[in-house]
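Okay, can you check this protein?
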Amino acid sequence: MTATNYSFAKPHFLGIAGLNRPEVESLLELADRYIELNRRTVKISDKLRGLTQINLFFEPSTRTQSSFEIAGKRLGMDVINMMVQTSSVSKGETLIDTAVTLNAMHPDVLVVRHSASGAAELLSQKVDCAVINAGDGQHEHPTQALLDALAIRRALGRMDGLRIAICGDIAHSRVARSNVALMNLLGAEVRLCGPPTLLPSDADRWGAEVFHNMDEAVTGCDVVMMLRLQNERMDSAAIPSAREYFRFYGLDRARLAKAGKQALVMHPGPMNRGVEIDSELADDPQVSLITGQVEMGVAARMAVLDMLVSDRADSDRAGDAP
């Protein structure tokens, strides 16, 4: 199973910046096909059999790390989750020394999440294998944007011409940055909304219309994406209280009614229920794509792994042939 009439030429997957529309659409088409594989009883492919994937997560993760692990295993890879808390990193080893050590083990792909913006790109300069950015600081989270686009396309049939509001803690969100770039690339109109304390000073240069009023931001939208308040990254004075935040920037059914009649709801997770989004709305399968986003995550990450390293697997097998 490979993308039709297209080969992904880049050695790494570090961000949406630098990708072109044919590359993104090829990834989405391939991910779409992997959804069908993932819904079978037997979900294993041997496409990347014999290759090695190391997941190197310096920050806590449930959805991203587990979906990368499942994605690699379903493609037949040997997958190692490196426990950073019990590794030499906890003894003071630098990121570069860790990269050199892992590189000596000859992995084929390194999946990296790190609190420092640019960490994945730095590692890509120090290793011989492909590097995938699973989230770096407040910079990018490109596979999240890819799976979000996949969920929207499957639900609404397109991205071109859609109006999408991304609301909440924009300032600390690598998800928002990657999504704005990808949605613009695919022809959507993007809006950003949040209190002034949670909007970056350069938000008006992201290629999205900026709002401070939530009701105005969601009016006429096809999709409303809520973002988690990243309390671990912010000053406690950024919002007055969770109750006040929900009053002005939380999403409930009454506020969603201001959007289009068929408007859909998204959230990359984990959710702070009753702070960013009302539970009843989040759990309503008629409007919520949130569970679907989790499913799309495995397929999207399978597509990225396939496009990045399948040529390596194919060339090795050809070399083994008599």
